[in-house]
Design brief:
It contains ten helices and twelve strands. It is α/β, with parallel strands linked by helices. It has three domains: about 80 residues, Arc Repressor Mutant, subunit A (Orthogonal Bundle), CATH 1.10.10; about 90 residues, D-Maltodextrin-Binding Protein, domain 2 (3-Layer(aba) Sandwich), CATH 3.40.190; about 100 residues, 3-Layer(aba) Sandwich (D-Maltodextrin-Binding Protein, domain 2), CATH 3.40.190. Helix 1 crosses helix 3. It is elongated, with a radius of gyration of 25 Å.
Length: about 300
């Protein structure tokens, strides 16, 4: 039985970081300790719990079963303690030097963050915003470990276990360069299939998407001649070639180099949501950022 009165809280903080980093050197860097100091803490923790806790492995240190049992309760306990001792004061954006980290694709960056940037900079000129590449499979872990504050993702496929707020419902339009010889209102489905298409591939290099699923159900197929990993490249391709693309309407709302028409088929749209971890839900700075983004999106 561990005596709480004699418990060194610093040891638990070290254990929390070690269980996240699984590496003594990285843990020492995060804690601003020397590596020998972290090793001493780990030795004391092993003695305290009567368990090795972390063992050498091929890809860093591996947590024992006891350490895995401790990880989540320890994280929650430390967060509760931090909230208890932190003064609750309102967030003042004009005086803040806060740094936020958000995960976004190039399309959500253009349609969500860009419209909010002017307002954020005007209201909170001392703050900073880091935009990280959106990797859907990493969102939950990044949010849990505090590596990202917000993530923008479609409702479908969005990771469970995070707070959410719907920002908008998106639909698809057909776009091509201004003056395209075959892009006109009233385009028939047969003419649509004969056009040469470019698509942003969700599986990086694929030539089949939601539009192709709709066409396949009708026994039809379009000509997808180019697959790209980012919407930014796609917009440049559309402006300089005769290729066309099915795009989210917000992405081409104010693009002067492109003309946009309603497609001759109904491709289901999607809901764009903002996701964040419970640990940040009540933080005044986080609440302010969420509200300003949601309002302007």
């Amino acid at each position: 039985m561990i005596n709480l009165r004699s418990l060194d809280l610093n040891l638990l903080v070290t254990l929390d970081v070690l269980l996240t980093e699984r590496n003594v050197t990285r843990a020492a860097r995060r804690l601003n300790y020397s590596q020998p100091s972290v090793s001493v803490h780990l030795a004391k923790l092993r003695d305290m719990f009567g368990d090795p806790l972390l063992l050498p492995g091929p890809r860093g240190m591996q947590a024992t079963a006891r350490a895995e049992e401790l990880r989540q309760p320890l994280r929650e306990a430390l967060e509760s303690l931090e909230r208890a001792v932190t003064p609750g004061r309102p967030f003042n954006p004009a005086e803040s030097e806060h740094t936020w980290r958000v995960a976004a694709s190039d399309s959500s960056g253009a349609t969500i963050l860009l419209p909010a940037m002017t307002a954020i900079r005007a209201a909170a000129p001392g703050t900073r915003l880091a935009v990280l590449d959106l990797v859907p499979s990493h969102i939950a872990k990044q949010a849990e470990q505090g590596e990202v504050d917000l993530a923008f993702h479609t409702e479908e496929g969005s990771p469970p276990g995070l707070r959410r707020r719907k920002l908008f419902a998106e639909r698809y339009v057909l776009a091509g360069r201004v003056g395209h010889p075959h892009l006109r209102p009233g385009l028939t489905l047969a003419e649509f299939c004969e056009l040469e298409h470019v698509m942003m591939s969700p599986d990086r290099g694929g030539f089949h998407g939601a539009t192709d699923d709709v066409l396949a159900n009708a026994g039809l197929k379009r000509k997808v001649v180019l697959s790209v990993p980012h919407f930014l490249l796609m917009l440049s391709v559309l402006a300089s070639t005769d290729l066309v693309a099915m795009l989210p309407s917000r992405l081409v709302r104010n693009t002067q180099a492109l003309q946009v028409i309603e497609p001759p088929l109904d491709v289901p749209g999607y809901d764009m949501v903002m996701r964040w971890h419970e640990r940040s839900h009540r933080d005044p700075a986080h609440q302010w950022l969420r509200e300003i983004i949601a309002t302007l999106a």
